[in-house]
Design goal:
Elements (H helix, E strand, L loop, with lengths): L2 E4 L9 H15 L7 H4 L9 H8 L5 H18 L8 H10 L3 E5 L4 H10 L8 E3 L12 H10 L6 E5 L2 H10 L2 E4 L8 H6 L2 E2 L3 H11 L2
Parallel strand pairs: 1-2, 1-4, 2-3, 4-5, 5-6
């Protein structure tokens, strides 16, 4: 293991409920009605990647550009007042990995402003040598593109990188890229397909840190 790559939403930060509220807001504004439950249907995917799922759910009432605009509007307002809550054990894990001279990276489908807003406000940007956001790739997860790009920027082979993910689409993305995909579930538990593709599954970041410390002892 030469590098650990972190997903952001649901893995480092507890943001699922915020997105649920944002899509309730955006859905009502666009006439779709409360759409927060789509967090569960499109978990780990960007809006554009999940377009067919949104169309299948809402038909002609789905307006991708308007949904994105209103979602950003809600999130920008929310995060000017509040800070994203970090998952328990995150800072301890980051410190432990850095002390072991392991490279750290972020591979998030979220937009650039969301990624840097969370990392900078939480004062953890300093831990990462590579930060890749959704605007830096053509295809979002479950495409392997974001992990392939992140590994290239790290200068490491995917097989030497652990990818930490909380979603099915994230695990599929990391696994397809050739990374050792590790799942730490957030709002959804792994199904049989994910159990067959995940290198390991842990209940929390704290549990993963214990594993890393024992692995290197």
């Amino acid at each position: 293991m030469k590098a650990v790559i972190f997903d952001m939403d649901g893995l480092m930060f507890d943001t699922s409920k915020v997105f649920e509220s944002a899509w309730d807001y955006a859905g009502e504004k666009t006439g779709m009605g409360k759409a927060g439950y789509m967090v569960y249907k499109t978990h780990g995917m960007g809006i554009s990647t999940a377009k067919d799922i949104w169309i299948g759910e809402f038909g002609n009432t789905f307006d991708e550009a308007e949904l994105k605009k209103l979602t950003k509007e809600y999130l920008a307002d929310y995060y000017t007042k509040k800070q994203a809550q970090m998952k328990p054990g995150l800072v301890s894990l980051l410190s432990s990995l850095r002390n072991k001279k392991i490279k750290l990276a972020v591979a998030s489908s979220s937009s650039k402003w969301e990624v840097y807003n969370h990392l900078q406000k939480s004062e953890i940007e300093k831990y990462f040598t590579v930060i890749v956001n959704g605007q830096m790739v053509r295809m979002s997860k479950p495409s392997p593109e974001i992990y392939i790009k992140t590994c290239n920027l790290l200068g490491e082979k995917p097989s030497d990188c652990i990818a930490l993910e909380d979603s099915k689409n994230g695990i599929l993305s990391a696994h397809s890229a050739g990374c050792q995909a590790v799942m730490i579930p957030d709002i959804l538990q792994p199904d049989e397909e994910i159990k067959s593709k995940a290198y390991k599954i842990f209940a929390s970041l704290c549990e993963f840190e214990i594993y890393i410390n024992n692995f290197n002892s």
